[in-house]
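A common beginner's mistake is to predict each chain separately and then try to dock the pieces by hand. The better habit, illustrated here, is to supply every component at once so that their relative placement is modeled jointly.
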Amino acid sequence: MKMWKWSKLSTALLGVALFVSACGGGDNNDPAAGKSSSTNEPGATEKAWTGEIVVWDGPRWSDDKENKYHWIENKKAEFEKLHPGVTIKIVQTPWAEMEDKLNVSIAGGAWPDLVYNVSNRMASIKNIESGIVEPIDEFYTADELADFYPNALKEYEYEGKHYGVPVSTRVHSLLLNLEIFKQKGVEPPVDGKWTYDEFLEKMKQLTGGGVHGFSTYIMPSYYEAWPFLMMDGGRPLSDDLTQYTFDSPEAISGLQKFLDLKFVHEVALPDMGMSNVGDTYQAFAAQDKRLMAVQPWNSWAIASSQKEPYAMDLMVAEYPTGDSGKSISMGDVLGWVMLKQKDEGKKQMAMEFVKFLTTTEEIFITAKNYGVFPSRISSGEQRPFEANPQMERAQQIAENAMMVPRHTNWQKIDEAIQKELQLAVNGTKTAEQALKDARSQVESLLK
Amino acid sequence: MKTEMTAQEAGGRISSPASWLKTWKKIGPAYLFLLPKLLLFGLFTVLPVGWTFLLSFQEYEIFDSHWIGLRNYAEAFRNEIFTGALWNTFRYTIVTVPLSILTALIIASLVFPLGHRSQTFFRASFYLPVVTSTVIVAMVWRWIFNYRFGLLNHVVGIFGMQPVDWLGQTDLALWSLMLMNVLIPPGSGILLYLAAMGSVNPSLFEAARIDGASAFQIWRKITVPLLKPTTFYLLILSMIGAFQVFTEIVMMTGGGPGNATETVVHVIYKTGFRDFEYGMASAQSVILFIIIMFIAVFQYKMLGDEGVERHKKRRNK
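With all components supplied together, the output reads:
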């Protein structure tokens, strides 16, 4: 009897809960949600769409009030003025939280309309295949698309369509603290170019007296060390992304040279590969503990290392060349992505806003102030880094940078490889063992 | 007690609408007061748990999920990273839980005889890590373990030894995390033990002293056995907490080097929120739930029943 009562009560509660959840608010991709009112019905095409567009963006450069969202807030105000009845809702989202928040919002079916895509997580093949990301081709002419650097645009391409508007490129390069070079009487590489042997020789000269030549870290989604692995011609996957190739003799040789910096030549910090991002940057840039002369970093660190509190006499150099004779660098492309829309009018207006944010002028402003490389050729031609030769050199590197392979399971593949690299760099496995052990994990993900 | 009896009486008498109404008048207000909490509990606990269970049998797609039976469970057990994480989590639990409880018991036993003011000071001090964000605590420990500037390597250096890469060595990383867990004072455990010690009849200690028992004998033969229900409670709670270890992993090692410090909840998090595999993440969560439940029931059978019953009998006498 008592059980019966409880089961009745539980059923009633579950019913109430379901009712309440069913009455819950709609999501952003629902055309009828909120105060949006589409006027895109037949016969009303002349009238512009009105309603709210939700935009997720992260912090950029500060204004004099330390507001890191001032640029997009100003653009929002200008756009709303041009389009009465349209409201842009900016959701301020720290970059570190962007991916998790987006994933949760997608799982809950309540995604934003526009999002700033970092490291191509949002315009991933997985998301494109799931139908979450909208293609943008119907809004751009071929001439308009031709103004984007091909390698930047390619990052948003899938099966002949483009799934985002590239804004900027980031790249990894070697940052040299020339103050340590001068102290040790070592000449920096001419034009920032060097072979592995020249690099090694200089690292040996720089090491001593509590300072090491080089260091970096190895973590999933971070590619600072990978150009060393690829300098002899090794590549993680085959060109058609169907085969694991990082255990080729070229890749093993590249990893071996990287490991030798630590274990044989002892020119790298003893904890190379195992330290985290923050600690590694501090060890390179903090005024009171500059423990190494050269470090590979993403391009954001160039601007950071040129101003207080980290200001130093800085030089940007290419990764050393190996047996392949080519200097390799890896990069990623940032840009705007529109998520699935049900309302055509809203879709057009959202894209209008994206175009408003990605004009030649706006991409130039973003590049100059935010320290990223423009994705538009016309913005690049305006030379945003004319007064900063180090950024210009990095921009040249960016133009030929390799991008992270765009495989549906790339994040898992990346993790499987990086975890094996960690075991190589902490001495648990040899270069060959580590790269060969990754094969079985990666192969199962490539199927 | 009165409410409980009324409800029991009512349970046997619901036979006619009149008696049902009479009963409702008696117990209805109680349920009404409970209703908001029950609704919230239903919405935010029962419903998600039920949904997780259902999801675990599906291949989740954002626009089209479909039923795949037990395939997620089978794949979870075939996944070496998940089974490795289970083993790491099990080792972490086995080592840290007994040591944390023992530490709490020893500290509480040392604090209990102190005066009121000193006791208050130590209670607050030992409880401080509990109210401090785990993220902050993990950051402090990251500095303690730092290869170049860390406190531990400074101490090691005093003895003329080479610095150790505490979090970077495959064999050492998990042990370092265990060390961190054990060295953080178990504030909640200390408070619970102190409260339990305060409720022990002082005449028992007095009688033991008259009989010539030493302080250690009193502690071992009287204090510790009488604290068994508290120990059992702490054991269950700490075990659940240890099986769910997550923040420390994210902040300190990210599961590395390799998969040396990968734990179950960290794997579930990555499967769900990085890979979008909600069906698989749900299956992994259900597996964790079943393991925790099984161990809790086992502990209850081995320690709980006997301990609680004995304690009750003693109290009744």
